[in-house]
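Reviewer comment 2.1 asked that we show a complete input and output for one of the modelled complexes. We chose the pyridoxal-5'-phosphate case, as it is the one discussed in the main text.
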Amino acid sequence: MSCQYNFSAGPAAIPHEVLKKVQSELLDWHGTGMSVMEMSHRGKHFMPILDETESNLRLLLSIPENYKVLFLQGGAITQNFMVPMNLLNDTTASYVVSGYWSKRTFEDAQPFNGIHLSASSESIDYKVPPNYQDWKYSNKDAYIHYCMNETIHGVEYFDVPIIHDVPLVCDMSSNIFSRPINVKSFGVIYAGAQKNIGPAGLTVVIVRDDLIGAADKKTPTTFNWKIQSDNKSMINTPSTFSIYVAGLVFKWLLQKGGLKSVEEENIKKADYLYNFIDSSDFYYNDINKNNRSRMNVAFRIKSDELTSKFVKEAEEDGLYGLKGHRIVGGLRASIYNAMSLEGVIALVNFMKKFQGNN
Ligand SMILES: *Cc1c(COP(=O)(O)O)cnc(C)c1O
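Response of the prediction step:
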């Protein structure tokens, strides 16, 4: 059977209404006779699309004036070296490791000097992320890096540490726009688009303006936040079509009432699924209850050998993308903004049926 509900971790589901809108405008955007894909990025049609995408993004996250929004490429992983190139400036930085992605960020930064481990939960299989009180850093650090939601391990930080002397750099690839955040608590926020924003190929970077301009002299122009910021993210061709679709997703979020309403819906979805898992003696999730990801629900079947049967039969029922990441195995339901409560209910109904049959 074809996919009815898409639980993929990324590239992930895009709201159906948005896809319909893209389809209706695909061949002829607003009477121009052109597809957005074919438009000059500096042209009179695309520039307003970019401006509107940025202003709706700012509105959703209540971004203060003194932060720049960049529309870049290369994915979140490219920020693993862009962050040190733009911020380190021959000083030091501290990295918190709370799962696969933040560990990879820490490892990717190793070619730079002065990269320190702040805290790690690897020895406890990332079941509880390191407490803010246990983060080690120096007040001379250029920044502290952490990942707010670990997409693979299903572990999320829900409150934000208050650190006055060192800017926080946060990878929010898989939970940005899932709830309101206080942008002022961060120096830099970045996210690859393909989880909760839109199509792959776009990376959103939100950076406080006093942190722009310290890039290493060897930084290529496309990787230099200041040069990109001074050129409206157009020092080379940006991912125009992804920016356009992201803009439609932002409008869809605003129509839903903004991030407060989106958060309420996301809490309902996650609670529904975790409550069922906890009530069952067939499935389990062993992440610390206060840190269970609202976006990526990683779970297992007590009889692990049933996992591939589960994935296969779920697909036959139209529930797609439930296989856990290859490095951790098990199962994972990614329930980003585009996943409806009905989709989560359909998943739980399937889980009950599977349990009954096995
Ligand atoms: C998916 C993901 C990444 C990697 O993103 P790319 O866009 O593929 O580079 C990094 N961090 C987190 C938290 C992710 O979910």
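The first helix runs from residue 16 to 25. We note this here for comparison with the apo prediction described in Section 3.2.
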